[in-house]
Write a structure and sequence with these properties.
Elements (H helix, E strand, L loop, with lengths): L20 E2 L5 E2 L1
Antiparallel strand pairs: 1-2
Length: 30
């Protein structure tokens, strides 16, 4: 698994990644 983008935020909560997870489609969320 890759690391989440450093200059991006969670597309669900719109905050910085805290416990980032990557979905099978390669999208990141926390």
């Amino acid at each position: 698994m890759e690391a989440p983008p450093l200059n991006d935020c969670c597309s669900i909560c719109h905050d910085d990644f805290t416990l980032a997870c990557q979905a099978n489609c390669s999208h990141w969320f926390c």
